[in-house]
Write a structure and sequence with these properties.
The protein is mainly β and about 700 residues long. The protein has nine helices and 45 strands. The strands form 13 sheets. An eight-stranded parallel beta sheet has the order 17-16-15-14-13-20-19-18. A five-stranded antiparallel beta sheet has the order 30-31-32-33-34, with no helix packed on it. Helix 1 (about 155-165) crosses helix 2, helix 3 packs parallel to helix 4 (about 245-260) and helix 7 runs parallel beside helix 8. The radius of gyration is 32 Å and the shape is elongated. The two termini are about 60 Å apart.
């Protein structure tokens, strides 16, 4: 970068408000450098401030410098300017001013500019405040990651990442475990995102820094980080290091003190496993993976507590993931439970999911390395099932149904979890049947209110009420679907006489039940049950077996090391089955078979009821023989391979899901897609289909994932 001989070598700002948070002071720190041998006299500085959106000049000041800038020297100056009622910067209103500084010296003009935001950060007791408002940080950790370029990003990839994080209602990103590219911070400034910038130190307690290198290895890097980003409004706090435990006293106590001296406007945090590792010296406490009891543990903390990493995504139990991607959808239940407890605890500042994006790299020879598929966003920047759970759980506007449709109106309950905005700044759109509209109630932060939606016509049970919520930035932050008219249905019992009669064929070894389009064969010798469409067709369904799958974290190590790993399906049924007794009843319209059996893990019985209308009802009752903590249990039905499509209706954690989400409440999924077969880390070439259509030899993610409830 070429600069004039006399130049602006540093230009930083800090903003503070009056006690009413209306008028502000713009503190400007300027460093001027004279790189000539001659002194400079009569230099001047021109300050200009331009408003957001309109770019209107709102402040201007020219200051002649009385100081002589001697040759080969540096001159530091601090100026404070009063600004009347500036538009504030926060994630819901990312108002950026353009601040220009022009140095006039030796007949030359040098102009430099910054995008700045008016905001003030304070710690009061065990809460953090921004512009006088308490904040709750809905966070995620982020690595710089490109599957083909490693830690190197290009173009507008930083902007795309922040847009994705913002879309899932994250309002705080931790830059683990090093300062990010400046393009990323600029994207956070403009789009509205709090940031924790972390110094480049991880597990420092496992190494030794010689005294001769301490300045360059620890202090210089930390202070360079602070000096580079201390004017950016999105930067909320500084992280001194990651998970370096006892190294705080040895390496980081001094650097933390210097950070406070260089930037007294922001709090500091030490990301750690134990909240005492920083000797309680920093403004914000921190613990990684505190577990479900974390909010209770820190309920009476004297300082704000941050869970710098929590709710780790499934990444290391690849045996499970390869077999059943449905555990990615199941993750949402625990995540929502944890966040609600954190949100309800005032001393808990927030937390960051580990991690925001998958961390896998594809080498030129096709081998995959990296830590794993631990993000709600994959490394190709596609949304995974966890993305929707993060979006819904972190939603700043919570809506629930408060009554049925009645007399042209439906009542809903709206809770405002926005940090800086009244609900009146949002746009809440609804539609039901052929009717639609917009409601705009006034609900302050942290408040909940029942609101009526007036519908001009009549609704039926088939008319779902859909609601879309847009925040003050016109970002779609949440979607809901409610059944507002109950289904009224007459239960007409089928007459036994109308059910097709069942024909029975008995022999010494078998009993066969036949109805139109269905044949059931019971082997008296083995107890096997075979089901086919007719006597000439192949078997389509076999006797069910009990499954008691224990929780399992097998992934053959915590990293992807480039080795080709093949995981057999984790679908084992209970072991060493012994059929004790088979009972059957040959009724005119129903064939009932009861199988009593023992396994090593459990004992009990299964009842099959076959009716002439092709319906098969199965009930079972087993008592565990061992202390098993199962992830999944039930009866396994072995189907013929040509059953390659499933359709379902289920109960879910949310009442609305995207159309391609594997957790959607109803849908159809095919075993095979046009996607190539991928390994544990997903596709090794940029995919064209959604994540749900990725597939292994067992089928697509959508097809082979458990559809719970």
């Amino acid at each position: 970068m070429a600069l004039p001989d006399v130049n602006v070598s540093m230009f930083h700002v800090a903003t503070t408000f009056d006690t009413a948070y209306q008028n502000a002071t713009l503190k400007t720190e300027v460093q001027l450098t004279n790189e000539t041998n001659s002194s400079v006299k009569n230099a001047a500085l021109v300050f200009e401030l331009f408003a957001p959106a309109t770019n209107e000049l709102v402040f201007s000041k020219k200051i002649s410098l009385d100081d002589k800038i001697t040759g080969n020297s540096i001159l530091n100056k601090i100026f404070e300017f009063p600004i009347q009622q500036p538009q504030k910067w926060d994630p819901e209103h990312p108002n950026l001013y353009t601040y220009k500084l022009t140095l006039v010296a030796n007949g030359n003009k040098e102009t430099t500019e910054r995008k700045i935001g008016f905001r003030q950060v304070e710690i009061r007791g065990n809460k953090e405040y921004v512009n006088g408002m308490p904040v709750k940080l809905r966070g995620a950790c982020r690595h710089e990651i490109d599957p083909l370029r490693g830690r190197s990003l290009i173009g507008d990839e930083w902007m795309k990442d922040v847009l994705l994080f913002r879309e899932e209602n994250v309002n705080y990103i931790r830059t683990s475990h090093y300062p990010p590219a400046e393009e990323f911070i600029h994207a956070c400034d403009s789009l509205g995102m709090f940031v924790e910038v972390e110094a480049p130190f991880c597990w420092a307690d496992q190494t030794k820094v010689p005294d001769s290198l301490y300045q360059s290895a620890i202090l210089d890097q930390t202070l360079d980080m602070v000096n580079f980003y201390r004017s950016n409004p999105s930067v909320l706090d500084w992280s001194i290091a990651n998970e370096s435990q006892s190294a705080y006293k040895t390496y980081f106590r001094k650097s933390a003190a210097l950070v406070k001296k260089l930037d007294p406007t922001r709090p500091r945090v030490y990301n750690q496993y134990g909240d005492e590792d920083d000797n309680n010296e920093l403004e914000i406490g921190n613990q990684h993976y505190p577990g479900p009891n974390g909010p209770s543990k820190y309920r009476y903390s004297k300082r704000p507590m941050m869970f710098g990493e929590y709710c780790h995504l499934n990444a290391y139990n690849r045996l499970e993931l390869i077999t059943d991607p449905g555990i990615r959808d199941a993750w949402g239940m625990g995540f929502e439970y944890m966040w609600e407890r954190m949100y309800a605890t005032p001393s808990i500042l927030g937390g960051c999911i580990w991690a925001g994006i998958d961390d896998t790299f594809i080498l030129p020879d096709g081998r995959v390395v990296g830590y794993g598929t631990w993000g709600p966003i994959d490394d190709w920047r596609r949304k995974k099932p966890e993305f929707w759970h993060v979006k819904k759980t972190y939603s700043p506007v919570k809506i629930s149904l408060a009554g049925n449709y009645k007399n042209g109106s439906v009542n809903i309950s709206i809770e405002n979890r926005l940090l800086f905005s009244n609900i009146s700044e949002c746009k809440i759109k609804w539609h039901a049947g052929k009717y639609d509209g917009v409601i705009n109630p006034s609900i302050a932060q942290t408040q909940k209110q029942t609101v009526g939606i007036n519908i001009s016509g009549k609704l039926t049970a088939a008319d779902t009420l859909f609601i879309d919520v847009y925040d003050p930035r016109n970002i779609l932050v949440d979607q809901y679907a409610f059944t507002v008219v109950p289904e009224i249905k007459e239960d007409i019992k089928k007459q036994e006489a109308s059910t097709p009669q069942i024909k029975y064929i008995k022999s010494e070894n078998t009993v066969i039940a036949q109805a139109p389009g269905l044949q059931i064969t019971v082997n008296k010798q083995t107890g096997d049950i075979l089901i086919s469409k007719s006597s000439s067709d192949k078997t389509i369904l076999q006797l069910a077996k009990l499954m008691l799958l224990p929780l399992n974290g097998d992934g053959r190590g915590t990293q992807m090391t480039g080795e080709a790993q093949v995981f057999d399906p984790f679908t084992n049924t209970a072991s060493n089955r012994i059929i004790k007794k088979v009972e059957y009843s040959c009724l005119p319209a129903k064939f009932v078979v009861t199988v009593h059996d023992d396994y090593d893990e459990a004992s009990g019985y299964t009842v099959y009821e076959f009716s002439g209308d092709k319906n098969i009802n199965i009930h079972y009752h087993y008592t565990a023989n061992k202390d098993i903590n199962p992830r999944q249990w039930g009866m396994v039905l072995s189907l013929a391979n040509d059953f390659n499509t499933i359709s379902w209706k289920r109960k879910g954690l949310w009442n609305y899901y995207p159309a391609d989400d594997i957790g959607r409440l109803s849908g159809t999924a095919n075993a095979i897609s046009s996607a190539p077969i991928s390994g544990p880390a997903g596709p090794i070439q940029k995919p064209t289909l959604s994540w749900s259509q990725d597939r292994t030899a067992l089928g697509t993610n959508d097809f082979r994932s458990t559809k719970m409830y």
